[in-house]
Request: fold
Amino acid sequence: MRIFCIGRNYAEHIEELNNERPGEPVIFTKPDTALLRPGEAFYYPDFSQDIHHEVEIVLKINKMGKNIDARFASKYYDELAVGIDFTARDLQSKLKAKGLPWDLAKGFDGSAPVSAFVPKSQFADIKNLTFGLNVNGEERQRGNTSMMLWDFDAQIAFLSRFFTLRQGDLLFTGTPAGVAAVQVGDRLSAFIEGETHLEFSVK
Ligand code: MG
Reply:
């Protein structure tokens, strides 16, 4: 199982980090050891003083595919979840400044909490899905999938030109604005359409 992620997929998030708007999707991966399953706590790592939350919709690939046409991409996922792309922003800033890969800042243990998956058919329109994150009961992030620069199907079409997608692979689809640091003791709660799907503490 691989965890693919897209960066810089919401215009307002690109602006808050003063990043350039990309001409093509920005892709990175996390190892499967990054996965934090429902019910597990996130342990703040000792190599960073600036861990940021990035709430994202996560797709689960349901069959193998290569060079998938965007018109047929929706047949390659039928479940989605909400997850957090935890990012060691201090490490990432150093790596970015040197033009180095982001792996250490993005792929560390526990950096990918993901809720239980639910059938996409449960939602009226996944191209217009509101999701977000509360920290200690206060809303920190709220986005809508209609605001993505590359929608789910365009992401799958792009990714599958480079990587054969396999059943069980996950795809983090980008974060809206509002990313910020978490602290030990914080309680995070991620929602889709107002309903909490993922809840855990930072320890
Ligand atoms: Mg992200």
About this structure: The radius of gyration is 16 Å. The longest strand covers residues 77-84. Residues 5, 7, 54, 56, 85, 172, 174-175 surround magnesium ion (CB under 6 Å). The mean pLDDT is 96.
